[in-house]
Amino acid sequence: MVLRMPDNELDPAASTQMFRAFVAEDRPAAPGEPARRSTPPVLLIAGVVVAIIVVAAAVLIAVS
Q1: How far is CA 51 from CA 25, 26, 43, 62, 63, in A?
Q2: Which of 21, 32, 39, 47 has the most CB atoms at less than 10 Å from its CB?
């Protein structure tokens, strides 16, 4: 026997609300919200370059 939940009550497990939290909705950004950039930040690029230089220097020191 399956009991049907009345339409005027909230979902006791809140599964609908949890599902909506993980669904990407196409809504415009709020006016005070900055737009997301598609390019990576300059600090990230600089950090990767510095890490490559440090690793290369360590390899050169280890080889010689």
Answers
A1: 37, 37, 12, 16, 18
A2: 47
Domain contains 61? yes
- Which domain, by its residues, includes 48? 39-64
Please state the pTM of the whole predicted model. 0.41
Indicate the SS3 state at residue 46: helix
Rg (CA), the chain: 26
Backbone angles phi, psi at 4, to 5 degrees: -95, 135
- For 9-34, write each residue's pLDDT tens digit: 666 666 666 666 666 666 665 666 66
Using pLDDT thresholds of 50, 70 and 90, give the confidence band for residue 41: confident
